[in-house]
Amino acid sequence: MLSRVADSIYWMSRYVERAENVARFIDVNLNLSLDVGPEMDRHWDPLIYTTGDHAEFQEKHSEGTQNNVIQFLTFDPENPNSILCCLRSARENARTVRDMISSPMWEEMNKFYLLVKTASQAQVLGSPFDFFSQIKLSAYTLDGVVQSTLSHGEAWHFHRMGQLIERADKTSRILDVKYFLLLPQVSDVGTQLDTNQWAALLKSASALEMYRKAHGRITPRQVAEFLLMDREFPRAVRFCVGHAEQSLLSITGGTRGNFVNRAEQRLGRLRAELDYTNIEEIFAVGLHEFIDQFQEKLNGVGGAISDTFFAVESDVKPVKSMRQTQTQGGGGQTQTQG
User: Fold this and answer.
1) For a designed S-S bond to 184, which of 24, 155, 188, 262 qualifies (C-beta 3.0 to 4.6 A apart)?
2) CA 16, 237, 146, 134: dihedral to nearest 10 degrees?
């Protein structure tokens, strides 16, 4: 497969997953607002920090109100991490490889993009729950079409690898929003309000039912363990990293325990670290600190994948930090904004 084609499919997948997960970030806060009430006002501004776009946000808005944050993260045409811009970039990448993807895939991509492009901002801000539910449903539909209509060869593996790497990053950030940025007062810990917030977090990751089947009672430590370490839940970080490595090895023909390029080395090392750690060790380091370190390593994996498969040998770009990756909307040769 041409590196240009692989690049486009990989980033198409990442942009779609990023758009869906930005919707999930917003959904976390919308669900929390039902329980927190007026106190929720102070929780919208930190949401911008999790995407790395606070400087850009402050240039346009004086305060982080619900409406300002939703408008910036959903519709802002100058914010490359907004849902609209992510879907526009995904659609453009899909257009450049139109002959490599299925017609149903292309059709659903266009429907998804038009859902956001044609949405009335006033209507969305007035009734946001339905709109963001539609975004998640459109992402589910597109993913189902990909699984059912795209041959599971190299193109599919690049798509899955991009999707899972982006998903692992965003699941960790969703957890970080609650545990670090939205950490309750000491007096709130263990109360019904605290439990409701953790339930809202699980629901935003579509994890509430599977968590209850596995653990029953909601506790912060078990929620963190489930979203980070579970081997079977498809949005858990450990699941995403392990299956992303499977796709990488299917592309290269490699095997676990060996590596022939930097992408295999970095992704294999990260997967092994997750395999051989536990939640007690994570909390000993500090959950926020662990997530920060994980995101840096995952960013290194993304840079290694770009260097291995997409970069022109004479013009290899340096690996970007996670903050740069977020604010610039990723990397690749076909990241046009048209």
Assistant:
1) 188
2) -50
Exposure of 114 in the CB half-sphere (CA atoms within 13 A):
6
Taking alpha carbons only, the member of 311, 334, 310, 308 closest to residue 94 is 334
Q: What mean pLDDT comes out for the span 90-117? A: 96
Q: What is the pLDDT of residues 259-279, one digit of tens each?
A: 999 999 999 999 999 999 999
Quote the pLDDT of residue 327. Answer: 34
Percent of the chain at pLDDT > 90 equals 60
* Chain CA centroid to CA 75, Å: 18
3-class SS letters over the chain: CCHHHHHHHHHHHHHHHHHHHHHHHHHHHHHHHHHHHHHHHHHCHHHHHHHCCHHHHHHHCCCCCHHHHHHHHHCCCCCCCCHHHHHHHHHHHHHHCHHHCCHHHHHHHHHHHHHHHCCCHHHHHHCHHHHHHHHHHHHHHHHHHHHHHCCCCHHHHHHHHHHHHHHHHHHHHHHHHHHHHCCCCHHHCCCHHHHHHHHHHHHHCCCHHHHHHHHCCCCHHHHHHHHHHCCCCCCCHHHHHHHHHHHHHHHHCCCCCCCCCHHHHHHHHHHHHHHCCCHHHHHHHCHHHHHHHHHHHHHHHHHHHHHHHHCCHHHCCCCCCHHHHHHHCCCCCCCCCC
Q: How many CA atoms lie within 13 A of 338 on its CB side?
A: 7
Contact 249, 160 (CB under 8 A): no
Can you read off the two tokens belonging to residue 13?
């997948």
> Which of 189, 190, 198, 221 lies closest to 287, judged by CA?
221
Cβ neighbors of 188 (< 8 A, separation 6 or more) are 194
Confidence of residue 316 (pLDDT cuts 50, 70, 90): very low
Task: Find all residues with CB under 8 Å of 75, minimum gap 6, and list them.
Answer: 82, 83, 84, 116, 119, 121, 124
Q: Is the pLDDT of residue 171 over 50?
A: yes
Q: What does residue 222 show for φ and ψ, rounded to 5 degrees? A: -70, -35
